[in-house]
Design brief:
219 residues, mainly alpha, 11 helices, 0% strand, globular, hAT-like_transposase_RNase-H, Zinc finger BED domain-containing protein RICESLEEPER 2-like
Length: 219
């Protein structure tokens, strides 16, 4: 669905489709991936990401700087070309406030191009947002930590296959990831994990067992 992703626009679209499909009186639950409009895990993931604010802010500013003008984009592509074996086909991505998984995509694309950003820093004195070695390491750890959430979101948001049988097991998988983060020696990941686990428990200590039926009945 194209923007805007407001609560009104989303609800209107959902009701329209339910009526078209003739299931408006049969629907029992809805699984949504948009956070700000639907009050799901996104707000809590974003709260956890506040611990990584400095690194994410520099990456965000780096992407905005490069994409801010055609000449900068051309210059950045020249920097990419100067780095052997660097694949830039996916481009740079900027995250959006309504979709937390776009933060993962932004991180992944920027990390792949970190050497190009270093080259840009050496050749463009106006560029001030290059990550330090330590910050690059933190960005990589954050990206690795977020990957299971990104993967799960894509899996249960699929539209070309059934997802009710996947949902309960994927939530359990997320719980395992969070529990593992609590045992991490990395203070950043542990802090993120603690914040996210508190929210996870708040919303999942009490849930409808109907969410497990799809997994139980899955042949």
């Amino acid at each position: 669905m194209p923007p805007p992703h407001t609560g009104f626009e989303l609800s209107s679209k959902i009701f329209k489709l339910l009526n078209e499909w003739g299931i408006e009186k049969k629907i029992m639950t809805l699984t949504l991936d948009n956070v700000s409009a639907n009050d799901t895990c996104q707000d809590h993931l974003k709260n956890g990401l506040k611990f990584a604010h400095d690194v994410l802010d520099k990456i965000r500013k780096s992407v905005k700087y490069v994409r801010g003008s055609e000449s900068r984009m051309i210059r950045f592509k020249e920097c990419v070309s100067a780095i052997p074996d660097l694949n830039f086909t996916s481009g740079l991505h900027l995250d959006v406030t309504t979709r937390w998984n776009s933060t993962y995509i932004m991180l992944e694309s920027a990390i792949k191009c970190r050497k190009a950003f270093e080259y840009l820093k050496a050749t463009d004195h106006a560029y001030k947002y290059c990550l330090s070695v330590d910050e690059c390491g933190r960005a990589e750890r954050i990206c690795e930590f977020l990957y299971p959430f990104y993967e799960t979101t894509n899996l249960i948001s699929g539209t070309s296959y059934p997802t009710s049988n996947l949902y309960f097991l994927q939530v359990y998988h997320i719980q395992c990831v969070l529990m593992e983060s609590l045992r991490s020696e990395d203070e950043l990941l542990r802090s993120m994990g603690e914040k996210m686990m508190n929210k996870f428990k708040k919303y999942w200590e009490k849930y409808s067992v109907i969410l497990a039926f799809g997994a139980i009945l899955d042949p």
